[in-house]
Specification:
Layout (H helix, E strand, L loop, with lengths): L1 E9 L4 H19 L3 E6 L7 E8 L2 H12 L2 H10 L3 E9 L9
Pfam family, one: NIPSNAP
Protein name: NIPSNAP family protein
Organism: Noviherbaspirillum saxi
Length: 104
Amino acid sequence: MIYEERNYTFQPANFRRFLHVYEQEGLPLMNEHLGGLQAFFTAETGELNTVVHLWAYQDLADRERRRSAMWNDPRWLAYADKVLPWIIRMETRILQPTAFSPMR
């Protein structure tokens, strides 16, 4: 099992708008294609207007297959066209749990 941590910082004027559009449009598509949502957070301190989400995959090949299918879905492309202009910064990390991690 691997985890993908995705961090996004948004233009302040569009942050609440993003959360609404994501909940209504983006999340259902991501759940359909990716499954495995482990957590979704907003930041209350530090860099504001930021979201962090964690996704679980069997391995890198599983991640690639699922994300490729999502990016080939015209519904996802329409959603991405809507929200990508609002993003200031994006960061993604692949995380592998240790033997003693509660998340395995």
